């Protein structure tokens, strides 16, 4: 190995179901990219932190797991979720050490995803959405042509409705009382606002829409409004507007071309970005980045889809969401031109095929992966 080449150490956490299939495909594409480009290379280390392991060990991340991750330049993540989780009424705790029959969805979230995002200060979740060449929106063409949907959703990733504060009492009384407290801090809101404005500044339209529900939630959401108003003064070139989250779903669906950069709380952006993914064509395409903008810790890149137990093990998952996520990782590592070229290769394949079933084709994961690798050989 030429010592002048850049070496990037990547932790891979494939997870469960199609998470493992699309992560393997993404690694193949990244290796091909490095091989053809020749100025950098990747070294991958795999972490088998899955629901299967949770059932055997009682935890997702070993006690020193976060520290292990800190030495990497980035993390490539697949998906976690147990095939049994939707049936399960199991009251499993992330701290249980016995073998567990199944793993409810909230356990994989609280046992794995949230500790990762919080411990690695990944306080921003970025979800770009657009209609890739050769794919189309389920919206009518008059409402949403190929160029009418080009958004980036900035999701607050560290506090808000997913803070985990709350509890359940009076369970034995027959009228259980549960609280779920949203936590909003000035520091937390300011940093996500600045990130959103910075993102808007880098995009051609320089347009930012802030989403809240401040007509009904009069503390945290009002603080969002106030801080938005303050931070806005530092960015006179950004055109801004505000939307209530309910009205926002209507605007996304009926007037997609009026939106560009969007900033919202953890819960609101979670929901809006699933809607965005669906409106852009397929959940199998959409990428996401969990970023630590301070770059103190590695950032994490993952397709937004889950483990898809219904198609897992068949080798037919669409790997494009994982490829796009990998491209975002390459961009975050500072290789912007390479990232653009990789996106070009991915879109050449979504346009000319082969395509997986969710995009109306009949190809499997392997065929799409090979096609993207061939494009990389041709285009780079
Ligand atoms: P989890 O519990 O892990 O969140 P889920 O089944 O709730 O899994 P997804 O995995 O996101 O949620 O799947 C939702 C639907 O979209 C499923 O029918 C699945 O088959 C389909 N799907 C998701 N990702 C892909 C993909 N990459 N390629 C093809 N279909 C996909
Ligand atoms: Mg799910």
From TrEMBL:
Catalytic activity field: (R)-malate + NAD(+) = pyruvate + CO2 + NADH
Domain Isopropylmalate dehydrogenase-like residues, every copy: 9-372
Needed cofactors: Mg(2+); Mn(2+)
EC number(s) on file: 1.1.1.83
Keywords on record: Magnesium, Manganese, Metal-binding, NAD, Oxidoreductase
Name of the top EC class for this enzyme: oxidoreductase
InterPro entries from the UniProt entry: ICDH/IPMDH, IsoCit/isopropylmalate_DH_CS, IsoPropMal-DH-like_dom, TTC_DH
Domain of life: Eukaryota
PANTHER family cross-referenced by the UniProt entry: D-MALATE DEHYDROGENASE [DECARBOXYLATING]
Similarity annotation: Belongs to the isocitrate and isopropylmalate dehydrogenases family.
UniProt-listed NCBIfam families: TTC
Entry protein name: D-malate dehydrogenase (decarboxylating)
